[in-house]
Specification:
Number of helices: 3
Shape: globular
Order of helices and strands: HHH
Radius of gyration: 13 Å
Low-confidence stretches: none
Structural class: mainly alpha
């Protein structure tokens, strides 16, 4: 997931309002990905995985 985020960020060509909305969306998503990578327990990891799943499911609510 971190690798995909790095690729997305490096290749981003968006501008304007869409770019600003992407930053809003990615801020919480990136935090959840970081938390998953450093989760101290399996339960904590599952919690973060559920958050990530929710972000991915709501992506289309924000972007076409």
């Amino acid at each position: 997931l971190k690798g995909e985020l790095d690729t997305l960020i490096k290749g981003c060509t968006m501008t304007g309002d869409a770019h600003a909305m992407l930053h809003v969306y990615l801020t919480d998503y990136m935090t959840a990905v970081d938390n998953l990578a450093t989760a101290p327990t399996v339960t904590d990891g599952r919690t973060e995985a559920v958050k990530i799943k929710g972000f991915l499911e709501r992506y289309d609510d924000y972007f076409e």
